[in-house]
Write a structure and sequence with these properties.
mainly alpha, 10 helices, elongated
Length: 192
């Protein structure tokens, strides 16, 4: 049995049951092996959870790094919309990642919480720089009202986190309507 298969099944179980309720026996059963065989790959449930978390973050980071790369030629306002639209684009085809990420963000980090928070914060670096560049470019071009670039970057991340929660809680139609409403107001404020 491959490590990749164990990680995939563990992600499904952690997403469905949460860290506290998931058992190594259940994960091993989903893989089709006995529980002791998991220890050949992961020394503990905590290590397995951290590996799943890191795998999700790597995938998330790669997606958003590509989104940043494909948006650099856009004007600042469409660039920001492109980046914010990445939330829906990323999770639309990754429902297990959404469920896992929701549990990880809201309810748990497992026993290695501080380590996982550091993994997450490090993963945001390129995206935060891209948001900041879009803001600076918009101000330089006279398209955005000048203000606090660090505060603006923080605002965009708060909006992205809110979009993620909206996406996981509402139907696609409701999400899309709320995204459009929020975008209309944000773009009006930026252009003021």
């Amino acid at each position: 049995m491959t490590k990749a298969r164990i990680l995939a099944e563990a992600r499904r179980v952690f997403a469905r049951r949460g860290y506290a309720e998931a058992s190594l026996r259940e994960i091993a059963g989903a893989v089709g092996i006995k529980t002791p065989s998991l220890y050949a790959h992961f020394p503990s449930k905590e290590a397995l959870y951290q590996a799943v978390y890191a795998e999700v973050i790597v995938d998330h980071t790669a997606f958003f790094d590509e989104l940043v790369r494909t948006s650099t030629e856009l004007e600042p306002l469409p660039r920001l919309r492109h980046l914010l639209g990445g939330i829906e684009a990323y999770y639309r085809d990754r429902s297990e990642f959404a469920e896992f990420s929701l549990r990880a963000a809201v309810a748990e980090y497992g026993p290695n919480g501080e380590t996982l928070r550091e993994i997450f914060l490090t993963s945001e670096t390129n995206l935060a720089a891209a948001v900041r560049r879009a803001y600076d470019d918009g101000v330089s071009a006279g398209a955005f009202a000048p203000g606090d670039p660090e505060g603006f970057t923080a605002l965009v991340f708060v909006i992205m986190e809110g979009l993620f929660l909206q996406l996981t809680h509402y139907s696609p139609d409701v999400y899309r309507a709320r995204f459009e409403d929020a975008w209309r107001h944000l773009s009006a404020i930026l252009s003021a």
